DNA sequence: TAATTGATTAAAAAAATTTTTAACGTATTG
DNA sequence: CAATACGTTAAAAATTTTTTTAATCAATTA
């Protein structure tokens, strides 16, 4: 039976895509990507490789927007430059492997976070030691220095843990330690 | 020996704190918190409970800023309202347990992300099925519908995996599966 | 219960980010 | 090697977000 005209069917397909594009864009917000770059990713997600002009046509935005958008997606490793034979324009394709994205993104982020904070803690503790070792200061003062030193010391295990987690994620260990299928976990 | 005056020592302690406050604020950017709310958290991190007016004095900002900042931190579960005996003003204290923060934050975020996308995928696939089942359409059209359907189907394992990861994180399983100490992992 | 203090909401101002238009540089092709 | 097409950078415009001031609401106390 023929419920749909061809045009209706194609509009319906586009509508289905849009539902997911919306949802992907909303998600990518959480990964520090603007809504428009997220929508661009979602659009590319359903296409083969695309030129900047094709993107612009689909999204109705300017070409520099596409250029910077693609750049952001490349930084995130979710878009790659491709070669299309006999095509003068540059082409780009979306990375569809979310596991790879997850691993790259969070292992980088967590490693950076841990290193940044541990470095600050080290510097702060060295500076605090100068005060702590100075016996001529009033009790109140070096007690405060010791308190701050202790608070910082107590936070270190978290950052070590985060470094270890990042390493496990990068190596693939973590991915495989969690089941891939639905409701496989005990209830 | 007396290298420091008391004032110098106190300035030095504050300087040490500031190093870490800066670093915490930069980190919290990654968790969707504005720089100023991040700085507020860092400030509270080294203090006991604080009133809005104490915060404002320390940060040199307006009281409504403190009010909305604390609210954001409460939403993130990194600040809690406390009771200070005989204190009319409200007081708040920073949560220092980063493990708890990590678990709460990411298990929520990942669960939301998985559910949101799986829901969109479901709706999209149902809509695509209408086109796929319509035998009167040109081959090109239902082939496209099938392709999109397949792409979506192939992404599901990732979201199931993410749901499982979120559950493992919430239950504490994941935290304990990763070592807490430095360089414990094989090199 | 009136007066006062403190917190939040609303509206305005300020600041930061995103997007576009326009200019520029680079590379490809005839 | 000239001409043209493409991509990126720069500057301007537009939008969004953040912050503040002002007003309102709520609660405590005298």
UniProtKB/TrEMBL annotation, chains A, B:
One of its GO terms (molecular function) is DNA binding. Keywords: DNA-binding, Transcription, Transcription regulation. Belongs to the GbsR family. This is HTH-type transcriptional regulator.
